[in-house]
Design a protein that fits this description.
It is built from 4 helices and no strands. It has 83 residues and is mainly alpha-helical.
């Protein structure tokens, strides 16, 4: 599923500083990390290097960035969550 792929990316790229990969999709929604279908409001998306929307820092992960493919997978997951 999109969540499984996204969680793998989060585990590989974000786990050094964040515990997103340990949360369920429902927990991400409940904490505001993920807003179903809304990239600009989803912290897990807009804080990624290269994101062009959303408030706050946009320079995650520190010391690197996600590939275009990884960002695309995260985008697809968020856009399709809750549908």
């Amino acid at each position: 599923s999109g969540f499984t792929q996204a969680r793998t990316i989060l585990q590989q790229k974000c786990a050094a500083c964040h515990n997103y990969h340990t949360l369920t999709e429902a927990q991400m929604v409940a904490t505001g990390i993920l807003v179903r279908g809304d990239l600009a409001s989803s912290k897990v998306y807009y804080r990624l290097a290269g994101a062009s929307v959303g408030p706050g820092p946009r320079d995650m992960p520190t010391g690197g960035s996600l590939t275009g493919s990884e960002i695309s997978q995260i985008e697809t997951w968020i856009q399709n969550t809750g549908q």
